[in-house]
Amino acid sequence: MLLLQLVSLALVALASQANSLKLKKDVPVFVKTLKELYRGPPQRTVARADTAEEKWITQPLDHFDESNTKTYEMRYFLNDEFQTDGSPIFIFLGGEWEASPGMIQQGHWYDMAKEHNGVLIYTEHRYYGESVPTETMSLENLQYLHVKQALADVARFIETFKSENAQLTNSKVLLAGGSYSATMVVWFKRLYPDLVVGGWASSAPLLAKVDFYEYKEVTGRAFLELGGQKCYDRIQNGIAELEYMFDNKRAAEARAMLRICSSFDHENDLDMWNLFGSISNIFASVAQTQSPGDIEYYCDFLLSFDDNATAIANFAYWAWNYPSCIDARYQETVEYYLWGIDNFDSSRPWFYQTCNEYGWYQSSRSNNQPFGNKFPATFNIELCKDVFSSKFGNEQIESNIAQTNEDFGGLEPNVENVYMTHGELDPWSAMGQGVAEGATVITKASHCTDFGSISSSDSSEMRASKERIAELVREWLA
Ligand SMILES: *[C@@H]1O[C@H](CO)[C@@H](O)[C@H](O)[C@H]1NC(C)=O
């Protein structure tokens, strides 16, 4: 059941894309697995969709160049059902996904706003969803896509929103975010400490890094701790056997097992990296979104086959759910991102941000993970070059990343009144603060899993963390 649910969830996530892509372009396998990893914090759909209103605000295209007078329309959602004189303003920041009102209609952020008669807002990040400032996503047009511009959008939003609402002129503002938008909460407090009284950052990566090999280590650890040694060994041996087959004249057999299309060239490193990176991302997506019982279920599935390689091949085929053969060519990935110049799709702008600001390439460099060694960070650097410009070589990306860490302080952002939470088994947690630096790390939890209302199904640690942020919010608003 769970696997089917995952697959159908994946399909729901892709459905809106599928509608616009229909008959135009299949999402190639590597991009498909990345979409799973960057789809924003989970949110339940709510029946009371009428409580949030879609609104727009005019923003400068470039906050840092006064001679540029161009503007764009940034979208936000507003839920003012509790609004009264002086209501505090609870803003959930959008990240590299399309904003939708769920997060301000239910869940812990909503519950806290309700307690304080807060106004709820969800801001959409420029270049994602409907907040697209340029006609195309050419490299030249993407020059206005940068976290500093996005943070300036939020600052200007807060000032404008307050000045245009007589009841809220002196209201206090709080921020929340998950994943990259949690990073933005931290960085916003660093750049604009006087505009917000506090923030909640769930699963915020803070350290930019090109070769993010720790990611797959934590992914492996999630399978080991929750699925057991046999499951971990099955993954490790299955992937190793597939690699061995490709390298030792049994490529035809391996391709048949994986049902790969004939155009795939196993003698081309880029194709192999594309394939094995995609396989490992399926496991990452499971680890990143797991709830209790999920990994155990997938492990039962993996262990139900007679041999290691078949288990991995069937798992991949099932998860990808392509009607016929799997096109795992590198060139398909490149072409998809190029297609994104004229066809908006959040994959291209986020990939640009990784080349230009963060890296975070989830590579196979570590030996302390079960996913083989056929997807080095170089794979993504080649992709940056082929998709954007040859200027995005290793040196350029390293220097972009160093700049980001210099601007925002890496693991020492030096901010006050930001509550940071992480899941212990969230592969992203390695790029964020740990317990020693003051973050709360929730045992066995994954990525952004703490946004739901306080519930009887919460672990005691999860509950304690939710109560802690509620307490902090009371202090900040006192
Ligand atoms: C799976 O891998 C392990 C470790 O290499 C090996 O002992 C076992 O025989 C393999 N299973 C099959 C059915 O090939």
Can you offer a commentary on this structure?
45% of the residues lie in helices and 11% in strands. The chain is built from 16 helices and ten strands. The strands form two sheets. It has an eight-stranded mixed sheet with strand order 1-2-4-3-5-6-9-10, sandwiched between helices. Strands 7-8 form a two-stranded parallel sheet. Helix 5 (180-191) links the parallel strand 5 and strand 6. Helix 2 (29-37) packs parallel to helix 9 and helix 6 crosses helix 10. It is globular and about 75 Å long. The protein starts with a helix and ends with a helix. Residues 1-23 have low confidence and may be disordered. 2-acetamido-2-deoxy-beta-D-glucopyranose is lined by residues 237, 306-308. 2-acetamido-2-deoxy-beta-D-glucopyranose (NAG) binds at residues 237, 306-308.
- The name of the CATH architecture of the largest domain is 3-Layer(aba) Sandwich
- Order of SSEs: HHEEEHEHEHEEHHHHHHHHEHHEEH
Span of the ends, CA to CA: 47 Å
The domain tally reads 2
Residue stretches low in confidence (pLDDT < 50, at least 5 long) are: 1-23
Q: Tell me the number of strands.
A: 10
Sequence of strands across the biggest β-sheet: 1-2-4-3-5-6-9-10
Beta-strand percent range: 5-15%
> What does the radius of gyration come to?
22 Å
For CATH, the homologous superfamily of the largest domain is named as Alpha/Beta hydrolase fold, catalytic domain
